[in-house]
Write a structure and sequence with these properties.
With 394 residues, the chain is α/β, with parallel strands linked by helices. It has 2 domains: 172 residues, Rossmann fold; 206 residues, 3-Layer(aba) Sandwich (Rossmann fold). Helices cover 32% and strands 25% of the residues. It has 13 helices and 19 strands. Strands 12-11-8-13-16-17-18-19 form an 8-stranded mixed beta sheet, sandwiched between helices. A 5-stranded parallel beta sheet has the order 2-1-3-4-5, with helices on both faces. The chain is elongated and about 85 Å long. The two termini are 19 Å apart.
């Protein structure tokens, strides 16, 4: 089993609806699941392995004879927390019901003991055939969650029950099956996002390149999982975030002021905002002319995390570090000095990560464990961080 209960095997059967599963994959990633796609060999006639690898950022194999050194029919099964097979054809359902293991997907199903959901898609006459009805009953008796197909227009002119359901219907039922989507119910979470700006004059400021995307991803993920979320946004243009309390700030002092009044009431603080380390000693009201713009006297900004750490009363504090050298050592030092429970660090050499929808780096935990984070979306990382923060809460 994986460390975070969010690893999914997405099985793809050989039906025309396979192309719709590309959207299912992306929506699962939005929910923070790590997804490994395992197509049946015949399904590659509809959607090729390159598509699944590009979308999942993971290797795709269909047979036990591929990547033999990894023993993937066992290793993938051990790491999986859930199975979602969509679409499931009549043939695939029959093979699963009979316990066959003639490709990688069916091997994995036999080798794992985790919740499994199947989304059938086929012609109505095949769905209603006595053999399919019996096979579905067999799978349900074994504990498989079999979603009823929708009724509607099919590939040709025929219509009836057998249509592949809409993406969000599949995802919502999958979330119900997994039972992880409301695990932050009753928790209060504060998330900071963006980058603070310290005014030099009315048109210039000291700032940084933070886009706020990671913090927004964390806030949205926490809200989806049932938390009461307060997003403190520093100089970020926001879309409509229903159900999330948003406070806009500009400077580090303003952010600290908001946190001082709200930190005691939260369970988790995710400090993803990039706070400017320094600010001008004095800011002027008129633009400084170029000829006089020769030097700026600076003073340190308050260290927000270090200020809040002594006030902790059971809260979990999550920090971030953007480094260009000695990345792990620098993050470990920050974790200790600022009283963090976990920290996510990435290498931003050459401007990497900033403004991107994707990320990669390492999570460091207070107990000394290190969790490598391979290339993935910031939405996926958001849920991964929340998983570890929730574990820290106990």
């Amino acid at each position: 089993m994986s460390a975070t209960n969010r690893e999914v095997i997405l099985g793809i059967g050989a039906g025309i609806a396979a192309y719709k599963s590309a959207d299912v994959l992306r929506r699962l990633q939005d929910q923070g699941f790590g997804v490994t796609v395992v197509p049946t060999p015949s399904s590659l006639n509809f959607v090729g392995a390159a598509t699944w690898e590009a979308l999942s950022h993971r290797a795709v194999t269909t047979q036990v004879w591929e990547r033999v050194e990894e023993v993937r029919h066992i290793s993938l099964a051990k790491n999986a927390d859930y199975f979602l097979i969509a679409p499931a054809t009549a043939d695939l359902i029959a093979r699963l019901a009979s316990g066959r293991a003639d490709d990688l997907l069916t091997n994995l199903v036999l080798a794992s003991d985790v919740p499994k959901m199947i989304v059938p898609a086929m012609h109505p006459s095949m769905w209603l055939d006595a053999a399919t009805v019996a096979n579905v009953a067999t799978l349900r008796a074994r504990g498989f969650h079999v979603m009823e197909p929708e009724t509607g227009r099919l590939t040709g002119s025929d219509s009836g029950q057998g249509r592949f359901p809409e993406t969000m219907s599949i995802v919502n039922q999958f979330l119900t099956v997994t039972g992880v989507h409301r695990d932050l119910e009753g928790k209060k979470i504060i998330v900071t996002a963006g980058g603070t700006r310290e005014a030099i004059d009315p048109v210039r400021f000291i700032g940084n390149r933070s886009s706020g995307k990671q913090g927004i991803s964390v806030a949205k993920a926490a809200a989806r999982r049932g938390a009461q979320v307060h997003l403190i946004a520093a100089n970020v243009e926001l879309e409509n975030l229903d159900g999330i309390l948003v406070t806009h700030v500009v400077t580090a002092d303003e952010m600290l002021q908001v946190l001082n009044s709200s930190f005691a009431q939260c369970n988790i603080l995710v400090m993803s905002a990039a706070v400017a380390d320094a600010k001008p000693v004095a800011s002027v009201d008129e633009k400084i002319k170029k000829a006089h713009f020769t030097s700026i006297e600076l003073e340190q900004n308050p260290d927000i995390l270090a200020t809040l750490a002594p006030l902790k009363n059971g809260q979990v504090m999550v920090g971030f570090a953007a480094e260009t050298s000695d990345v792990i050592a620098a993050a470990g030092s920050k974790l200790e000095k600022k009283g963090l429970d976990l920290i996510y660090v990435n290498d931003v050499s050459g401007g990497a990560i900033f403004g991107s929808d994707d990320t990669e780096g390492t999570i460091l935990l207070r107990n000394g464990d290190q969790v490598p984070v391979s290339h993935q979306s910031k939405d996926t990382l958001a849920n991964l961080l929340l998983d570890y923060a929730l574990k820290q809460l106990g």
